[in-house]
Amino acid sequence: MHRKLKSLEDVELYKDEVIGPELVGTVEYEKDGEHSFYGAIIPTTHRLFVNIRKADEVEHHQVEYKEITGISTENLLMVGNIIHIWIGKEIVISMKSVSDGKLDKFLNFLYKHRARRLQLDSEASINHDQQVV
Fold this sequence. Notes:
alpha+beta; PH-domain like; 7-stranded antiparallel beta sheet; 7 strands
């Protein structure tokens, strides 16, 4: 089950999409009235996936980079590192007990590719607007 959480083999990726370093742990994400799951957060060059274990299945939920309004981290003494992913003005996804080394690699990949994706999206809308005018 642990291997399936870190996998996107059931997901159709874009032709040029690359999978980045995942985080595995306790994910706080509201789904069907439940809030805490064992799961993984996996960034790609195009989007972010939240994989959660429900019963004996792994569910994949994707978040487009343009939906993410913020990413924050905190380090709590008894809990460890926590990452929060904001959509709008709310924390929609959190993960607890993330190791420093994994978190740094994850964040570096996420920041880099999210910035690139947002730049590409804004260029596409600018080009689209220019063609319309």
